[in-house]
Amino acid sequence: MGTTLVFLEHHEGELQKGALGVLAKAASLGGEVAGVVLGHGVQDVAAKAGAFGATTVYVVDADVLAAPLPQPRVDALAAVVAATGAENVLFAASVLSADVAAGLAARLDAGLNWDLTDLVAEGGGLVGKRPALGDTVLVDVGWTTTPRLALIRSGSFEPVETGGSATIEPVVAQFEDFSTQPALLEHLQEAASGPSIEEADVIVAGGRGLGAPEGFKLCEDLADALGGAVAATRAVVDAGWYPYSTQVGQTGKSVSPRLYIALGISGAIQHKVGMQSSGTIVAVNKDPNAPIFDFADLGVVGDLNQIAPKLAELVRAHKA
Amino acid sequence: MCVTVALRLDRVRAVKIAVCVKQVPDATAAKRLDPGTKRLDRSGEAALNATDVNAVEEALRVKEAHGGEIVIVSLGPEKALESLRKALAMGADRAVLVSDAAAAGSDLVATSYALAKALEREAADLVLFGQQSSDSDGAVLWAAVADRLRRPMISQVAELRLDGGAVTGKRQTEFGYDVIAAPLPAIVAVSDAINEPRYPSLKGIMSAKSKPTETLSLADIGVEPDRAGEAGSRTTVTAMAPPPAKGGQVRIEDDGSAAEKIVEFLAERKLL
């Protein structure tokens, strides 16, 4: 197989875990694997990729890439593809990378498959695995031309620390007028404690069964004990109990952490599609008929107000 | 005096808005993939994709504030016209449906090409998309269309403002909120957080029946046969199977020891 490029998204000087997971997966598929870091003043960030298996990192460093906007990244990535003749370009799914991947697909008339949970090298090419129709069907998807573009569902692959170092290869890109027209006027950081739900190995999610916004304290405490992140269902986000950035499901994010603990979540299809590819699902709900029990690995019928605090305490004791 | 008038005119400059919508299987209908073609079976009950309704609503609000025209643009089978009528009943002015058997099975590359061609004919100031299509889970089409039309784009927009020939969008990302501005003509994908769509009034439903709709073939919009359908696509679906079965599921009723049992379960699976 030819060269595979992995789009390495970064935020505040840190490479995103999802992208590093895709990098590790790419390395296991064979062929040349290189990272791509786009931004302004990103040499140090790019160098960090070496420790996660990239031997080469292509860098486009330009002031128009300072803001996290997709269109100039399409120009930059197209330049890297042209310079390397890459056969595959892989992205860990995010708000930014989805727009970059789709823009690149149009620019290069290249096939893009998205929401993949696995990639397999086959006959010199790639086969993607994509859960469809609310994850009730697993489809194999392919590409008829190169480069093949793929967006990988977050949490599908774990980063692997190899401890190597990367050669940084600068690439010069020309930017289109329309690409550089959008301007970032303001960035409001959301107060986040602990990992984001895309990055977390463990997610504790709360639904209407928490009873009130204050119920999220139980989720936060348990997430803190497990070193995880807190997520929410659409119903409680709509009710203003928890921020939209934590919403999992059809109109929120799709996640697949190693462990997903659902507290007071009925498991309606809209929520299920966003979390059912999690490694292990534990559900606590007082309604024995809640649909979540149909797909939870461990289903507990009971009062989460009793169980969650005790669980947090026992987890802390276990870890201590 | 003249200066004042000119400024006022500029401020209320009418805006031509194209809203790209898609007909999808009704959310309550069971969905299936056709085992032969491996495409979504679209023969059952259909509806307008939910977030597209938010996009139509936002277009109506922009029109109410600035004046102008709203055209609904869609690719799909002829029966998609029923769903476009809903957008017209909400208040959009007219609809354009590109319907051609040769477009069946189009992937992102082919779909974005045809949609860009259809939009070129309209030369709208603002092109709106709904953030996510509920039948393909793909949140990507607008970015491909923006690249083909060579227009600036803002996605995931939860608040939209139009003034002085520019559009400003506040959007949600994994890291918080970004406020992004772009000059018109521009492409904006809205999230369902942006508004609460109105229901069509009876008057709206009645008047929708007489609003102009246009059904075009791929040839009408200048799409070459080899750029559409499977010939124009770069991806394939090669196989489908049920997802791998999960291991045994455990179900317990809390007898006061549920927390201990959960910890045991997690420890066994090395999740602690």
Summary, kept brief:
The complex is a heterodimer of chains A (about 325) and B (about 270). Chain A is an alpha/beta fold and about 325 residues long. Helix content of chain A is about 25%, strand content about 30%.
Distinctive features:
heterodimer, A: 320 residues, alpha/beta, Rossmann fold, 2 domains, seven-stranded parallel β-sheet, B: 272 residues, nine-stranded mixed β-sheet, two-stranded antiparallel ribbon, 13 strands, disordered N terminus
Regarding CATH, which class of chain B?
Alpha Beta
**Shape verdict of chain A:** globular
Strand order of the largest sheet of chain B: 9-8-7-10-6-1-4-5-11
CATH topology of the largest domain in chain A: Rossmann fold
Number of domains of chain B: 1
Report the CATH superfamily of the largest domain in chain A.
Answer: HUPs
> What is the name of the CATH class of the largest domain in chain A?
Alpha Beta
* Main sheet record of chain B: 9 strands, mixed
